[in-house]
Amino acid sequence: MQINFLGKNLHTPLVLASGVLGNNKAILERVWENGCGLPTMKSIGPAPREGHKNPTVIDLGNGLINAVGLPSPGYLNMEEEWQELSDRVFPITASIYGGSVEEFVQVAAFVSAKGPDFIELNISCPNSDQHGMVFGVNAQSSHDVVAAVKKVIHVPLIAKLTPAAPDIATIAKACEDAGADAICAINTAGPGMVIDIESRSPVLAFKKGGLSGPMIKPIAVRCVYDIFRSVSIPIIGLGGISTGKDAIEIIMAGATLVGIGTAVRYRGITVFDKVNKEISDWLAVHDTSMEEIRGAAHREA
Ligand code: DHB
């Protein structure tokens, strides 16, 4: 199921969501070998950051709540990773974050020179007051950060959006107008909170966290549907996608590529091959193609 995405040939339409498996070459290569067309790295920040205290991730059965806290060695301290990745045979997206437009620009310029195939701007993390969602909930700040980063990078730019925005379609349009080459939606939902009633305290050390997995899939499908109506750049659809049928659903909402994150935990690293086969089987049974079903939910019967 080869697919061309912004000029790159990917061997499958599946993307590994950012943050799920870190930045080590061996693990990113393994997901690619297991049917992921485009692995995304964990977001890289402007300075070393430890992240939040444990517990940072809790499994709620129908998904996860997490507040990892954007741990990063900082963009200047990743020479080993870049060295390793320099002779890779697979494509990667480097995800980045910052606390200001200037920081985004600084990180983006440096990271772009390291040769990732795409750069994703994480303007949507719910777990830091300074570094994330604060950009992605506002059309003007989304526009400003995308426009500024676009000037200093040499690879296509993907804007990763949050479902916490009051109108995600407007944010997506602002990113497109500022020069974004693609939209990735959605990042984790919420933030939410889970309280353990026996200890009477929130289960996460950071108290609040982003929601992922099957419980957020209807939000993801609605967001991709809305974004598809407002932009003409391609969309990476994700949020609770676990099966081939889930992937078909978000493609019908308008996605070109489909991201998988939390399902790696539930179905293992072979989830990519499994979902690819489930998509192919469904398309074969229905005698159709990915191109034919993309955005199908928008067409009048
Ligand atoms: C982090 C958590 C998220 O849920 C997310 O969407 C992005 C980043 C984090 O805490 O590192």
In short:
The chain has one domain: Aldolase class I (TIM Barrel, Alpha-Beta Barrel). The protein is built from eleven helices and 16 strands.
Write the layout of secondary structure elements.
Elements: E1 3-5, E2 8-10, E3 14-16, H1 25-33, E4 38-39, E5 57-59, E6 64-66, H2 79-85, E7 93-96, H3 101-112, E8 118-122, H4 133-136, H5 139-150, E9 157-161, H6 168-177, E10 182-185, E11 189-193, E12 195-196, E13 201-202, E14 208-212, H7 217-230, E15 235-237, H8 244-253, E16 257-260, H9 262-267, H10 271-285, H11 290-293
Parallel strand pairs: 3-4, 3-16, 7-8, 8-9, 9-10, 10-15, 15-16
Antiparallel strand pairs: 1-2, 5-6, 6-14, 11-14, 12-13
Helix pairs in contact: 3-5, 5-6, 6-7, 7-8, 8-10
The structure holds 3,4-dihydroxybenzoic acid.
